[in-house]
């Protein structure tokens, strides 16, 4: 769902926070923090209600139960990046699944992104965006978060944020898939060292090739499923590569 928000990326605050990436660096992407680069798992599990097709509209009891079970399965399979937001109403269940897992989250380096701003339905203006960013920087300075980022900003919003930023903009989450992707936004993020992350990375399509295309373009992905076999497939995207001059180019030209 398109949102004009600032998003908080909170990683386990420990020297071992990037252990999964240390073991399998090819499965991770770098993000910038106030103290240097940190590796982040490139594939995240989303917990939006649209991930759970057998839950009726607005049946958040079903959504919450599915989210908790899905996060548990994700962790069991080795997934270490979970995407959540206040709008999803699944953050409590994410926490319960992580706390209930048979492992120490601080030792395995669980990352979670969380919505940390206001309504998605209007443009709050430059001043509010900049003030929201400064408030999020305070979370970093207080040691409550390691890295902070943005979601669904346009180029002007990014430049406005960079004007006041003292902490790096680590990540920008946007809709990105073969049928809808902004090449100029990717270039802008690359210019400023901002990691682009895709919500709705399939865009209605199916298959690992679609996700692999994003990863080979340098874009991290947020997938959404409660099917454990699909999760395993999503985590197994690093054993093959697409041809850059035929397959990647052809997929990029679909929109």
Largest beta-sheet details: 8 strands, mixed, barrel
What fraction strand? 15-25%
Poorly predicted residue ranges: 1-8, 10-18, 105-109, 114-119
The termini sit apart by 19 Å
Return the string of H and E elements. EHEEEHEHHEHEHEHEHEHH
DSSP helix fraction: 25-40%
Rg calculated over all Cα atoms: 17 Å
Number of helices: 10
Choose one word for the global shape.
globular
Keywords: Signal
Pfam family, one: Aldo_ket_red
Protein name: Aldo-keto reductase
Question: How are the SSEs ordered, and which strands pair?
Answer:
Elements: E1 5-11, H1 19-23, E2 28-33, E3 36-41, E4 43-46, H2 60-76, E5 81-83, H3 91-100, H4 105-108, E6 111-115, H5 126-141, E7 147-151, H6 155-164, E8 169-175, H7 183-191, E9 195-199, H8 208-216, E10 220-223, H9 228-234, H10 244-252
Parallel strand pairs: 4-5, 4-10, 5-6, 7-8, 8-9, 9-10
Antiparallel strand pairs: 1-6, 1-7, 2-3
Helix pairs in contact: 2-3, 5-6
Write a concise keyword list for the protein shown above.
disordered N terminus, 255 residues, single chain, 8-stranded mixed barrel, 10 strands, 10 helices, alpha/beta, two-stranded antiparallel sheet
